[in-house]
Design a protein that fits this description.
By secondary structure, the protein is an alpha/beta fold. It is globular, with a radius of gyration of 19 Å. The chain binds nicotinamide-adenine-dinucleotide. The site of nicotinamide-adenine-dinucleotide has 23 residues, from helix 6 and helix 10.
Amino acid sequence: MGTERITGKTGLLALLGSPVGHSASPAMHNYSFDKLGLDYVYVAFDVPEEKVPDALNAVRTFHMRGVNVTMPDKIAAAKNVDELSPAAKIIGAVNTIVNENGKLVGHITDGVGFNENLRDHGVEVKGKKITVVGGGGAATAIEVQSALDGAREISIFNRKDKFFSRIQETAEKIMAEVPDCKVNVIDLEDREAFKREILDSDILVNATIVGMKPMDDKSVVDDMSVFHEGLVVADTVYNPLETKLLKDAKDHGCKVVNGKGMLLWQGVAAFKLWMGVDMPVDEVKAKFFAE
Ligand code: NAD
């Protein structure tokens, strides 16, 4: 990016979170602004959770077009915006904020990104039964968005940690908002139920940290007989790109989708919310997300 294009009129967007230095978001958004001739820049600010209200006031003061929000700021940000999208309201977290003339509107594009990535791989969630392992941030976004996108049934498995009761509450909220979608929450220790639900599902998703470095020799699935014909297996983990779960699933004939595309597509959705136009997805994909 040439600095000559930054003028007194250039608009500002940013990523808020901590840490933020490793993020791919500045590169992909700035590249897209350059490609489309949009007069904006995107930077990253390290913002601890307690500073989120200050940071959002700065968004207003500086007339920033918007921000992305990452861990650990997503929940505090949801509490400090003026309005929430339907998905962000159910989840109680945001990863994208749009500044509508001083009114901050919070969205969550992680679930949109996950489902768009599935679509990009020829997989549609509408009408499907999905088993999701996880009840944390990524999992909740996927579960809520899948219900909003027309999934028929979602079986959520989580171990009995602090996330379990939270995901039970979220499941109630999903069924209240989307009565056509049945949501089950089951203890991950119940291996019989786990097998039964996967055998009955079209899509299996891992949205836990299991499989991510340094747990990269682990998988949420230890019984290979769950990998039935027609099952699509997707992972939110992108480090490593091919998790043990995906390798096992592929070896047993399943179609697999890794976590990298979710990063791309959550950004694509955020870009559209801020700019009103599509990110040049094919070029961004080729430049930053080639496999
Ligand atoms: P989180 O801390 O909010 O949730 C962690 C989840 O992992 C919980 O469900 C917890 O119960 C489960 N868990 C932790 N240790 C476990 C264990 N030993 N066995 C079984 N379950 C266990 O985390 P998060 O932000 O939701 O992230 C979850 C995963 O999603 C991470 O791997 C992260 O890299 C990935 N993620 C990917 C993207 C993307 O764009 N691809 C975006 C966000 C998160």
